[in-house]
Amino acid sequence: MTLPAPVRVKVCGTTSVKDAVLAAEAGADALGFIFAPVSRRRVSVPVAREAGLNVGPAVARVGVFLGQGLDEVLRMAEGARLSAVQLHGPLPDLYVREVARYYPVLRVLRPADLLAGAGGQTPPPPGVTPMLDAPEPGGGVPLDWAALRDVFPPGAWLAGGLGPENVAQAVRTLRPAGVDAVSRLEAGPGVKAPERVRAFVRAAKEAWPPELSTG
Fold first, then answer.
1. What parts of the sequence cross the membrane (predicted)?
2. 70: part of which helix (H) or strand (E)?
3. Suppose 41 and one of 1, 13, 59, 133 were both cysteines; which one would form an S-S bond, judging by CB atoms 3.0 to 4.6 Å apart?
4. 2 belongs to a structural domain
């Protein structure tokens, strides 16, 4: 039997070298650095770059952007030495395609987008992977995964209220290509709780592959 690729794990809202190293040592496949101006977890380009250099090339470095101009996104991505870009908010398709010319893109969708048929019915453009997130990212409120099972795009990532307590159930329900968490891994905004980071990565990895999992 051919098994699906293992679920990838992204620890987002990384604001320090210490927390970047913690996530990498816990087994995270990717780190998220938030550059969105409105976020309490916003990080500077130099800090993100230093954090990425301290975990090595095997761990992906994803920049999170919201409502920022194309030139700014590309400039910051280059300065931080990102390996991928995560785009939130309403954006023209041309904008997303242009970013994807330079970096792999995680294009964030909301449940309403999928239920309305946007983003889940047609394959994404080359270099673009859908990511389902909560209407209010970083709020710690889980989605109704069962209600989204029939519209969840194959190969998509999942975020929104995930933590050590529920990520296994989410993986078994929607079978995402990757999972992403922020607030439920923190001791405070932008400060990771080591035991929760380790437990989250472990729970996500142990829930895969869903066909062989129970519960």
1. none
2. helix 70-80
3. 13
4. no
Catalytic residue among 12, 19, 29, 180: 12
Would residue 133 show up in a list of annotated catalytic residues for this protein? yes
Residue 73 zone, left/alpha/beta (φ > 0; ψ -120 to 50; rest): alpha
How far CA 55 is from CA of 137, 140, 168, in Å, comes to 25, 26, 26
The domain that holds 129 is classified in CATH as: 3.20.20.70
Residue 202: φ, ψ to 5°: -60, -45
Q: Is residue 98 part of a domain?
A: yes
State the catalytic residue, choosing from 19, 29, 133, 180. Answer: 133
Contact 157, 193 (CB under 8 A): no
Q: What is the DSSP letter of 42?
A: B
Looking at the 3D structure of the chain, how many domains does it have? 1
Establish whether 29 is a catalytic residue.
no
Q: Would you say residue 212 lies in a domain?
A: no
CA 186 distance to own-chain centroid: 16
Name the maximum alpha-carbon separation found in the chain. Answer: 47
Question: Can you give the pLDDT of all 215 residues of the chain as single tens digits?
Answer: 455 678 999 999 999 999 999 999 999 999 999 999 989 999 999 999 999 999 989 999 999 999 999 999 999 999 999 999 999 999 999 999 999 999 999 999 998 888 776 555 577 889 999 999 987 766 667 889 999 999 999 999 999 999 999 999 999 999 999 999 999 999 998 899 999 999 999 999 998 765 544 44
List the domain range (segments joined by +) for residue 112: 8-207
